[in-house]
Amino acid sequence: MKKNKMLYRIVAAVLACAVVALALVTYQSRSSSNAPVAEGAVTATGSAKGMEGDVVVEVTADATTIYSITVKEQNETQGIGSVVCEQLPDTMVAANSYNVDGIAGATVTSDALKEAVKAALTSAGLDASAFAVAQTSDAAVEKTAESLDCDVVIVGAGGAGLTAAAQAAENGAKVIVVEKMPIVGGNSLKATGGMNAADTKYQEALGITDSGVDEFIEDTMNGGHQINDRSLVTVMAEESSDAVDWLDAIGAPLPKVAATGGTTHKYLHEPEDGSAVGSYLVEKLNAQAEKLGVQIMLNTEATEILTENGAAVGIKAESKEHNYTIHAKSVILATGGFGANFDLMASFNPALANAVTTNHAGATGDGILMAEAIGADTVDMDQIQLHPTVYQETGLLVSESVRSMGGILVNAEGKRFCNDLATRDAVSNAELEQPGAYAYIIFDQRIVDDLKSCQKYIKNGLTVSADNYEDLAKAMGLEGDAIQNFVDTMDTWNAAVAAGEDKEFGRNNGIDADLSTAPYYAIKIAPGIHHTMGGLKINTDAEVLDTQGNAIPGLYAAGETTGGVHGGNRIGGNAVCDFVVFGRIAGNNASAYAAN
């Protein structure tokens, strides 16, 4: 018996090694050109810093041709940066260039991979500049027509789309999701804070008794300047606790609870390890959808909603190779907002035409425009939110969690200038009134230790740091009186925290701990376009309404593609609550409609 067990273990180990070897060969073959490797070609490695560490590549090339690119090491986020490492080497080999379009939503990893390949070419003794221009093909791709059938088709694979897909599939529906981008996640990948929710088990366990449904509703209405649709806000608040429980059930718990900007209560639920909530949830939701058999079609853009007798019965979509007609019993739109469609935004506010945006490249309002084409109504389209803490060079959002954990904002004179955790519109407007229309967000090592996003900011070179306030001021570029102003500001803030009262600006949350744990950090930030509050008009069943106020049969929507929930200003943490709550409602009702 012992000999049999030992033999089994040996065979299992050999088979495991064979599987790993086969996987490596398969991966490398995807990164190779069809051209035979010429005599004299050289193989070399190169590396560059990604989001989660170094991206290391091995490149085989000669003076005129890149023959293969293989990613040897990477620790990028699964489903985001990892997709770059899987897909971009093929693109580079086909283009015979490292300078190809990156994958939207994974810019840092895309840039790292390009730099790593460039470094490998240089290391090989080759002229990297010879591969700086991509080759193009004039051959037209002839698309073939393909017809698909399902119960529910979902347009968009961001947080709302993946939530709706997982819920509908959980109910037994056959679900197809089309996503025009090469990765799932959409703008949800940009969410770095948490999910607001009320009356949850996590709040109860922490003894938080003053952050219930009624308070959540009123804070959201007040934050939205009372132009929100109260019925939608009420449903979001009432269903938020169940939404947290559902996430828990699919392996995505949010047990940490904090305050967020614009509220006086603790609703913000975050991952235990301090991860950014967006990428954390996208990974879990995507895994759940795939586990339940959802078909997710990437690089596939929906172009039209199909109707029969006034009801939505499917969509038309296209990829590089196919023109799809997808017949469905119901349709869910989850295409996100239009924060990357500058022409559309400028039609409501011309001042936004050249603004920086935190939105991913695919946030162009496609679902809104397609639905309008079949008679759907919209609401609050002119309500476009600026976020006050955006790193202007890349459009990267600096999480509101930094401030909710005690971080503060100072201007170029080294002074605080507002309630750092007021509503986003109020803080953004205050920043725009400061010298240079920018500010600095200040935090310390205590916050870095508790917040993974801060560790990424440091790793990616966004921060300056020092072991004392005076040296930090100098690292920020402050001069003259501004240096002493900054030191005084930090001392005043720490004293306010000790007293439990911010007499300067009346900040009433995020003052539980001071900024006294060296080293200290600063990031230069300014307002950027962050969220489009307007979109398709829906009812509390997530049904899309027409211009007469009637529900369009078979058509549902959720997430940032809808309007009404957030009014004139979105409270931080409400976007995630919105997409989980209404994503589930859309998934439930669309699957029920399809079953009838």
From TrEMBL:
SMART domains: FMN_bind. It comes from the Bacteria. The keyword Signal applies. Keywords: FAD, Flavoprotein, Oxidoreductase, Signal. Residues 50-124 form the FMN-binding domain. InterPro entries: FAD-dep_OxRdtase_2_FAD-bd, FAD-oxidoreductase_2, FAD/NAD-bd_sf, Flavocytochrome_c, FMN-bd, Succ_DH/fumarate_Rdtase_cat_sf. Its cofactor is FAD; FMN. It holds the Pfam family FAD_binding_2. This is Urocanate reductase. It comes from Faecalibacterium wellingii.
